[in-house]
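Work package 3, deliverable 3.1, input record:
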Amino acid sequence: METITFHSYRGGVGKTLLSVNTAVKLALSGKKVCLVDFDLRAPSHQSLFASSTFSVSHATKSFTGFLVGDHGPESVINSTNMDNFHCVFSNIEILQQKESKIRTKLTQHGEGRILAKLFEFIRYCNSQEFDFLIFDCMPGITYRSLDALVVSDKIMVVTRPVKSEISGLRLVISECYSKLEGAKLFSIMNQVEQIEDLVHTPNPLDVNLVKVNILGITKCLEESSTSIPLLHTFPRIPFVTERIYVLDEKEHPFSTEIDIFCTKLLQ
Amino acid sequence: MSDIRGKKGFEAPSHEDLDEYLAQSRKSISQMKDGKPPIIFKPKRTLPLRIIAVIIILVVSTSLVLGGSIINFDSPSNNNNNETTTTTPMTTTTTEISTTTQVVTTLPLDTETYLTDSIPKVESLINTLIASNRSLINPVIVNGTINRSQTITNLELFELVWILSQFEENSEWWDLGREIVFNTYNLWNKSSFLSEDLVFQILALRSLVAYPSSNIPLQAHSLQVYRNFSKQLWENVSSGYNNETGTFNPFNDSQLLTEHQILFCQVLGKTIEHPIIFMFNSTTEQATLLLETLETLTDSTIGLPHKFEANLTSSSDLFYSHHQSNMFLALNNLESLLGSVQEISMLTNRLYNYITDVFLQQDWSVAFSYNETASDLSSILILNDQLLYIRTNILKQKRNFADYTLGMVRSNFATANSRYYTSSEDYENQFLIDHIHLLLSFEEFLKLEKPSTTTDETATTTDDEGPGAASYAGEFISILALLVYIFYRRRKMKQ
């Protein structure tokens, strides 16, 4: 089984859309996949799946509950109308309702206990013969995102070519990614502007800025002491919303891009 | 950098802590991959200079006052010279997990060899405690001498039978329990039990149904008497069961005890093996209702309380680990009645997580170690906790936790000169029961599947044949040297 984590230095770069569509696509190609919503502070998978034609079996328990020891790994994995696709949801209620001790355990250092639970979950998924376990991780460097990164076989670093991203990416590489051992790192550049499809002529200043930003990200990745090869560049496609395109609209340009990405992933 | 660190309560590590956290995480994962328990690593905290100075002064002055003999060579952990059941030299692996980690484990390298060697000795000790014709079990040990004048009580018999019945079918010890019930003590037709209180009656019933109906060595007429007697006991016991809350309240109190629910669970777990005595539909319903109650009562962070109110709210601050383990084992038996229902797996997970949390959080010398100088019941219960914890880990296939606990039990248990052995007449039969329980744990452990790798790269092997004074002196000097080094580093950094 391969454990893949989608991570980014900050939120809003498209991790969730990419990870969900990738997971479903891998399942459509015959792989047994388990997708985990590991953005504990802003979980969104449950609503995303609800708005799709996807049918998820009655959601049982949340992953957050598993992490604090409320229930076993088997009760957090939801089956779906696709035999080989399973998903795991998180909810923030446990953070709001439970006593501060649990909140502390989840949000702070945790003394390695949450890491141990993650490992237990991976071991369980392994025993269930999943081909892929995919974590949609919370952004930034928190103790919990570190847990997910440490247990992963592959890390997909999702970036967007905007100026503020470049310095952030440089920092997160030197502070975090360069210190990870064992996991293979890949980068994904998301929402890259495409000049070809435009109906209006863009301002040359904007075009130049986009180029500079793409170059900046590329340079940052290339100059990094750690190898983070660019696996795929996703073009910015207007009106892409939070949906499972690979299932609902197989001919959608975004679905096509996910197809290509998954092919690269499986190579 | 601050913008990429934690938000909304999710804490981010400092620059220094991040390196430490990653290093510890890698180490923990590598341990877990080897089937060992995870490392619990605490955030790095530096001690104030003043406290370090005070510690150094205290250590140095204590050592001067005691003339260098700060180690108590008579402590329970240094009992190799006197121990009768563990005379074999043991090789142990000491794994020290960096300076910031709070857990230092000592894993026995060769538990199998130790157990194979120890089992005959423990068996021999039990046989010494039991009369040769097995007609009377009354080991009273006063000042190291076995005295047989005290008659064993029925309650002690019930406890013995329950543990003996859990040995492998048709084994010597399993057979002994069956003999006690159906032959030596004829517990199966003691109608006087019916006039005792309901706790006594449920304990009696538990002994009677401990062995499956196919293994009852009684002839037709006697068998009918046995069944009628058991049915009557069950009828009486059931009168203490509340059909609305699913609780067993033998004394009709406003406060209920968890140990009574455990007893009820244990009996329910056995009902499937006695279809003539029990009504399957009714016991299944009772078990389901009781599970719901347990779910209400169990909290993943504190487990099952010692007591609770009739409205199912906790009414006690006491949370005994033996309650968690006993219920864990009872729930496992309940599976035979209800099948693998989700509630059982959820509850067993909660209970196991709680006791493991105690195991990981607490210093074992406080949480589980046997206190040799204590002569009260708490020290005995702590021994029982250890044995139960071994068994829960065996059931959970957590070999390393079981292995570690066995190591603790081995070093603290069954010393010939132990005060536990001689101090109080009240608990001598507990001594016998604990030894039989110990034997059961040993045998269960040997059946546990062995992982492929058990050693750590960082482990250092030491020969532990005897605690030589030189090794303790060395240990003392290294501690002192470490403290001086920390003191020096702090000073240097300040400069």
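The longest strand of chain B covers residues 91-96.
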